[in-house]
Amino acid sequence: MFMIGMQNKNSQLKTKGFVLAEAIFSLFVTMLVLFILQNLLLSVKKANLSENQHMNEVAYAYVQLDRYMHDEDTKMVYPLVNEGKAKSATFVKVNKDKSEVEYKIEYYLSKRVLKVSKSNGGGYMPLIFNVQSAKFITRKDKIIIRINEYNKGESDLVFQLDEEPDEDRNVRKNKKEDQGKRKRAI
């Protein structure tokens, strides 16, 4: 009887709580589940980042050019409507010391890049790479660039600028007329 009593007592102890091995095993399973969930959340986050990568590149290009156009030394920036074509747009940046520099935004087909360069030559600043096509619309106070990227769809970059001053418009018109007369005379 004594043995039966001890056996009943031992069996009662086993049902009331966990053994150390069971507790360690349950902690191991809990840690494994948390590790799997953490990796799953990181994968979802990376998938969302790669989806939004396209928008980040376009937004970065917009911010980069807009900051360059409107830096602290700039007095005004205006588009040249007459110089605007379907494959490029031209704008003039007037500094506070009243010096004017003409820039051209264009799509460079062989390198598939949208770039900004001075109209009279020199280097260029790339804005967006892997561009399939680009269409430019120049208005009196804005430049609109419709970009079509490979496998990423279309995006529009709209740069709100100042209107061209009347005296600059008349000076440019006279220069073009003078250049036309010189070419005819030659």
Written account of the structure:
The protein is of the alpha+beta class and 186 residues long. It has one domain (53-185). It contains 3 helices and 8 strands, in the order H-H-E-E-E-E-E-E-E-E-H. It has helices at residues 2-16, 20-69, 166-185; strands at 74-79, 88-95, 100-108, 113-118, 124-129, 131-138, 142-149, 153-160. The protein has a 5-stranded antiparallel sheet with strand order 1-2-3-4-5, with helices on one face. It has a 3-stranded antiparallel sheet with strand order 6-7-8, covered by helices on one side. Strand 7 (142-149) and strand 8 form a beta hairpin. It is elongated, with a radius of gyration of 34 Å. 15% of the residues are buried.
